[in-house]
Amino acid sequence: MAMAYLAQASTMLGSLTDRIRVSLSRAGLRYGEYSGNYDRLTRLYRRRDPWNLANSGDGVRFAETNRRIARASPDCPSLLELGAGEGIQTGFLARVADRVTAIELSQEAIDRARQRVPHAHFLKGRAEDLSPLVQGQRFAVATACEMLYYVRDPGAVLAAL
Ligand SMILES: C[S@@+](CC[C@H](N)C(=O)[O-])C[C@H]1O[C@@H](n2cnc3c(N)ncnc32)[C@H](O)[C@@H]1O
Questions:
Q1: Average pLDDT of the chain?
Q2: Is 44 a residue whose pLDDT tops 70?
Q3: CB of residue 96 inside a 6 A radius of ligand 1
């Protein structure tokens, strides 16, 4: 009996902790605090999944993004993802594109992303340096989800695209 209560209390505490973590994470990671500050953005990845993307409702966003990509480019042969983070969305994108190339600032994030999506191709660098990074490759679709507002000069990234 006591064990059952303990297990129930532990489950409730766990879900409360998760909810607090998501709220604090979202509040603490407002884009204004990180916008253009690439050192700070990179340091965030000292801890795993700093935006709590794996456990939050973002799966809905990823699924909807996939739905739109599949509609715009059925059998998409190649996709470029800017700001891949730890590859959580990359895993989704790989379901609607034959070949995914992803660019990310943080080496730690890329190391985890490579484990998560081994068949995607990850490049460490800044989206602003897109042309030298992809070396003339062309892509049917490019995504920049939840990342342009962290970029120092979004116009430069759009021009590079
Ligand atoms: C909030 S995460 C978004 C991850 C994923 N795209 C999503 O929508 O869930 C933003 C990512 O963009 C990366 N990022 C920000 N500015 C960048 C830049 N100039 N070049 C490449 N990556 C950048 C950050 O390091 C971070 O991993």
A1: 88
A2: yes
A3: no
Q: Alpha helices of the chain — where are they, by DSSP H?
A: 2-28, 31-34, 38-43, 58-72, 88-93, 107-116, 130-134, 154-160
pTM, whole model, 2 decimals? 0.85
| Per-residue 3-state assignment (H helix, E strand, C coil) for 103-115 | EECCHHHHHHHHH
The third-level CATH classification (topology) of the domain covering 58-160 is Rossmann fold (3.40.50)
Beta carbon of 151 within 6 Å of any ligand 1 atom = yes
The ranges of the chain annotated as CATH 3.40.50.150 are: 58-160
Q: Does residue 100 line the site of ligand 1, with CB under 6 A?
A: no
Q: Which residue of 51, 93, 150, 153 sits with most ligand 1 atoms within 8 Å of its CB, as the best mutation to test the pocket?
A: 150
